[in-house]
Queue: 3 jobs
Job 1
Amino acid sequence: MVTTLATEAPQRLDAGSSLVVMRLRLIGQMEAWTLASSSVLPSGRKTRALLAVLALAVPRPVMRARLADLLWSRRPDEQARASLRQEIHRLQDVLAPAGPGVLVVNRDSLSLRPGAAWVDVDELMHATAAHPASLALLDGELLEGMDGIDPALDTWLATERERLRGRARQVAEVMLRTQASPDATIAVAQQLLSLDRAHEEAWRALMRAHAARGERGLALQSYDRCRAALADVLDAAPAPETVALLEELRGSRPSAQSAWTSPASDAAPAPYAAPARRGAARIGIVPLAAEGGEAEARLAAGLSDALHVALVRFRWMVLVSGSAIAEAAGPPGAGSPTAGSSSGVPGGSSGAGATVGRDAALRRALGLDYVLDGSVQRAGGRMRVMLRLVDLRGNQVVWARRFDRPAEDTLAVQDEVASEAAAQLDAEVLLVEARRAAQMPAAEEDAYNLVLRAMPGMVRLERLSFARSGDLMRRALALDPSHAAAHVWMAAWQMFQISQGWAPDAAAVLADAAGNAERAVMLDPLDARGYAVAGHIRGAQGRRLPEAVALHDRALVLNPDLAMGWALSGATFAYLGDAPEAERRLGRYKRLSPLDPHAFVFDVGFCLAALVRRDNAAAALAGRAASALHPAYSAACKPYLAALGHLRAGEEAAVVLRRLLAIDPGFTLERCLAASSFERASDREHFAAGLRLAGVPEGGGRAG
């Protein structure tokens, strides 16, 4: 008998615990109550957002810099910090009825005392297929009414909402595959479709279950609803196995009503196996619209070509030829966004309709996943370029950027804009593709999609999701050992495993990572990312810095717009002791991709370079900023901690050291120095002295 998702009370609520002093409801309209039923919900939306961010981070602290960026991203740093201080005081006042010590305020971070609050989101995240009752808490959207406070908070909120629904979807999927009766399957399938109405496995389970109950009409109706949902959400048609099931229900094959089979046996017969999905995103660049005269027209045409050249260097993208795009899209500028239209497209609403029609035609004619379009205009002595990327599978703008440049040198404008746009699109499209892959039915798995599914868990750096990412990478390599990108990202995963202190045998994992990187380079010698990762492994972990430099330089020759290549090579030069060259390369990465999602890794290079220059204050500042981007990344803590030690910042160093030891309990000075890649003895000694002053445990013996 099925346990539905909305029948039992939550299992983990312990309101009588001496630690729990308040309840927080973040799903739906936000609520905050003490155990005596007194409301402690802040009145201001930003104060509520501050409380919500802290609640979702428990037990980890949240750096003040991160909070300021989330809530006041459009203000200067000093104003944002001052505003944050005011909100902290307001939050302390409103939480006072819950008792002392609920809000833990430190110099650089804030947190809620672990165990002080029961949070509905935490309850739901602990649901399992065996104990699914707390999924009933998901009766609304996370933090309804909190949109629009700040663009950065909106982005964070979208990520948290997807994380929450993803967990509920994961539990419901496991439940669906274990039901033993049609009635139970229908109940769970309907719950799963309420979370994801384009979940094709749930639709097939619903079709089978209705057929097994003799409800052939409802089974056929479920197919029609499935087809409509897929077209609406994904702009896709049902998979071959879904169509095969429809044919079976219509009687062209043996009746589905003859016997009930569990959704776990969802594999289609061999003739209906889904074809392997191609391993790349298909992108088309629509000829840019030119507002003005001949100079703008030349720049628009040249920039379109420069964008194509820049993007084609990213090997996991497929760029459709400009002539094919121009033929399918119509005249240059048709439906492209312009700066002079409030709607963002020429001609207002009619322009929007033309854009939608153009995009649909491009998807039908060329099978595109994305189109990049935009406009060029001159204003005085300035040239403005506006670009946007549209995901055609959902008709969503997933990236948009405005570039303002001096108008004297149009060739320089073309090169700069194309380089920066390509670097940023590389990161953005990978994120979009990863989210899409996470929603794909298991039957459509291939190496490309398995790697994409692994990426979010890899960079989240939570032990369970990180381990699952490794499993997905291994499955990808088992399916396709010749997939170069799978070897690259497996090597990257192994590097994270080593740096976090999670490798069971660091030397063996390092050797395997080096083998994966070398295999990737051999399989695709034109992929710059493979050389960049191979160089990082040789340098940052293997202490073979001259070889690392050669690999990094090869990567940057192949793709001078690869932000990762500049950042990782910058770290290599820091280890060599060449701080000026390190900072030049790191600066190039930052100009190319100032909001890179992997900045928490790349920005550690700034901290290393400052340590090499013996500018401990700058190193601490850079380390603090990198660590704020991802407090769970241990590699950012180590040079940051060394700088704090030299500055005698004992209180801050103690906080960072506790965080580092929570991530890697076996971390010692001896082990750290054994793995250190600093080439010069003086740099190693400076690093060691800082760590020792910061209180890092020595280990088996003094080193360095």
Note: The radius of gyration is 27 Å.
Job 2
Amino acid sequence: MSSFLVSSGELKIILNMKWLDLLPLSFLILFSGSCDRPAKRPEEKANNKIVVYQVFTRLFGNTNTNNKPWGTIEENGVGKFNNFTDKALSELKALGITHIWFTGVPHHALVTDYTSFGIPGDDPDVVKGRAGSPYAVKDYYNVDPDMAVDPSNRLNEFRSLIARTHQQGLKVIIDIVPNHVARNYCQAEEPEGKTSFGKRDDVTVEYVRNNNFYYIPGQPFQVPDPQDGYLPLGGEKHPLADGKFAENPAKWTGNGSRNPKPSFWDWYETVKLNFGIRPDGSKDFDTIPGSFSTASYQEYCAFWQDKTVPDTWKKFREIALFWIALGVDGFRYDMAEMVPVEFWNYHNSSIKNINPDAFLLAEIYNPSIYREYIHTGKMDFLYDKVDLYDTLKSIIKGKGSTDHLPAVLARYADVGNHMLHFLENHDEQRIASPEFAGNALAGLPAMVLSATVSTSPVMIYFGQEVGEPGAEKGGFGSPSRTSIFDYVGVPHHQRWMNNGQFDGGQLTTEEKELRDFYSRLLNFTTHSAALDGEYREIHSFNRENTQGYTDKLYSFVRWNESEKLLVICNFDAQHSSEVNLSIPEDLLQRWNLSGTKVPLTDQLYQGKYQMVISSGSGKIKVTLKPLESLILKTDS
């Protein structure tokens, strides 16, 4: 056994030779300093727009179109890490992507039998679907065996995917799920010094700070009663599908249920982790002084040097640094608000000390803590689900008004560049699903707005760019969201994949045009200087001053010294809109526009327009087709 000792305060990461062989030399060199290592200068950071492509990794390369409900891996197929070929990755790069979020990479509980590879099996009574939820992680030091050609070599196969992704100039993001793990968590090949969650817990008490789980002493876990016909494996016979799972004493369930027999609608396949929050909700760790509210990650890192923190904190820091060492460029944190912000401060400061450019994204739905999790929690970005996504979805469905958008955007103006925008992800309905809009084109104006309204990242979900409706009945769960629990093929995406050629050869004309639109938009955003500049809405001004300008339109401007943009989106799916868009006098003065006529060019399809300046105000005559948007750039 060969070991490697890291000198960063109390942190000691000891790796046996098997794991050390997986680490790049750059990590060994980088990970030799302390919290005092100087930060990169701001000018070293890239200024380009971040465009995230979320891909459900095990579905991406699957060419099988069978889609039998509850189908096995042999019946319905599965994608592999090596399906992300150089061609596939180069096409994603050409689409305008900068970062790929490989969803579902860490080894999670699943029903497919890999015991012949030394991988412990799972009980279908505590697995959702046949392929399992990617958010019921079973082993944080390995990857999903489904996606490997050789499951015994699966971590090296993922390492090769990281290398191929980096060769294309793309960044790699994976999930970390801090709030909970699979009920059957076990590190099959435990690295030296890295004990599994719960291995050293005192199970005779409900809570001890250094326990990894919460317990219900004296009461065994009971499998919840199935609801709505959701029997394990759809009712198929299985030797372990007997309504029983050995766990004594029972642990708290992932969403916090303290019932030894949780509800079927609880996160019963997972158990909640203990981050030092006592059962009464009080904190059993040092809090951060108010004077540290704007401290740097180096200062926070130093703050924790002499503090004793809960064992779960240490375990997750080691997990994150393990993946950083393998070449992962950042993380998407599942349900981050269910974990105390002090932990995030400790955790993210440690990551930033190793890689200041690491991409750290949090799934959070509570606007009242946005700023705390950005400033104190040291998150780079948060989901902009509550308010912006919800407002846009209402507008897309024809129920909401664009008049609500100025207030929504103003509400988070101070942290707006930290809010990741999206219209689809694995939790949300597909735009093209009947349950949402029933038409992928209905999302186009909202996509233009989401991509250009701020400097913040924008994200699309694989298949969104070709109108995937998520219509398959995989087994666990219902259509409108592409299944994350079962083995399925993704039909529209498969037509683009074209049996592994990744050339769109089977797409319809409409699907090709949709993908072309996404490519034009996303590539524009990654090269536009104005999107690093200022924002101002002109919607309210036009609602008051422009005849025919309705609450189905939304307009705003983005600019810096070198580029000036006017963006107008028509959310009306039925009617064209012809208006003389008005530009306020003070804005013309700030832009130093001279003359009476200013030429403009649409950045999506290169159409030519003209701003006429008269009596101190500017007018641009535009006709927008239903669901059309224009990104007008001044030619002067």
Note: Residues 1-34, 37-47 have pLDDT under 50 and may be disordered.
Job 3
Amino acid sequence: MAHSIVCDELSFSWPDGTVVLARLDLALDAGRTGLIGRNGTGKSTLLRLVAGELTPTSGSVSVAGDVGRLPQTLTLQTHRTVADLVGVAGVRMAIAAVERGEVTGEALAMIGDDWDIDERAVAELHRLGFTDPDILDRQVATLSGGEAVLAGLAALLIRPPAVTLLDEPTNNLDRFARGLLYDAVGRWPGVLVVVSHDRELLERVDRIVELREGSVRTYGGGFSAYIEQVEAEQQAAQRAVRAAEGDLRREQRQLIETRTKLDRRARTGRKAEAEKRVPKIVAGNRKRAAQVSAGKLRTAQSESVDAARAALADAEEAVRDDHRIRVDLPGTAVPAGRTVLQLRTPATRFTVRGPERVALLGRNGSGKTTLLRAIVGFEAGPAGHAAAGAEIEQRLDRIAYLPQRLDTLDDSATVLDNVRSVNPGSTPQQVRAQLARFLIGKDRVDLPASVLSGGERFRVSLARLLLADPPPQLLLLDEPTNNLDLDSVDALADALAGYRGALVVAGHDLPFLHSVGITTWWEFDADGTLQVIDPPWSD
């Protein structure tokens, strides 16, 4: 059976020469494939190459059938309508033109058999949780991040392509919406390739393909099977390293012993010659023969040491040594009794004191982002009236807000300039060193923010907030695990667990929320009322 997607020595570099993929070979069969890898390894770029949106620098990509892609950037397309996201705007315009009497061959070709496209699109959107009858005419700017993702997913369900590419589809989705996505993936027609850090979603694929250090490796089964295989491989790799270290130590000891023996023989020969116990000509012959023999022995022993050292290097290369985000912000500490945030709703008052940690839950569109923006002061009036009539009564001045759309960066400016704009007192070298702690390499610091991957964009946005002068004492995060690879989610949890300020996190990733030490849980219920709830447990 022919493969559905074939990459043959595929290479891609950006115009500035940055290499993303180099001579990549990959063949994917029909079924569901989970594509994983650290941020910046080229996952999204690979999907864009498969979709034909980018042209390989060298090599080739071949795909069996048409391709549909759900990109990470849907939430940034605020100027578009839902009809645009769903992919029916052109057909709707053509139908409207025909109904006005403007019947043209171009319009009829555009419509084809899609005279009922409005009904089909609205039905699919309603199945995904939208209830607004005029949903197709709404602007993306009025949608929550999760709603924008669901609208993009609807486009692929209305007209399923032969090959579907989903790039972080669970970003911003609430638990209900994730359940809808999981069900859709379970019955997806044709070929599906999904880039995700959602472990529940990755359990539903047929295979895991890991993109790592420029090469790919395929593992059969879902995410649990992948973890088991990697752990077994790493245990074997660690044993191989220990064995190689032992071999190297043994070869080095033998080299020392050989050199000691040869030095002893040389001293004995020189002493015998000095005492004239053997004829001079015989001594000379013995000396030359000994030198030749010693040279061969030293060479052989040195080669054995080099071979052992090379074997150790090979063994160490098989051991994963992934770097993690490191954050240390002593200036963020907040005394336990200080009131950080106080807001009032018609029913009750909500107060955050000291380094308290609050999780903000609720369905997509319930008002989580609106409340966070009100706390920052982005919404109506100096006090800010939030969702469901919540009024901000008191808040700290040193607030940092990370929106789910990640639109706080100046895309035309470099990474370095974006961070220095909030901390002008730091030298470029100091900022470079600080960015390295957020895993932003020196080859990325001078690039414009527009070329960053989703995960890199998140880390730069986070660095820009946390490295500001003065540093924030109240940190508001809106869906912070979006776009992060699995290792970075764990690293972010570690970093936030050591954060000394107050924290309010809006999200749906319950394992992550539990891991950062949430102490208080707020939730918008079905009526849009904010309430304190007991800690929910992850599935």
Note: The longest strand covers residues 19-28.
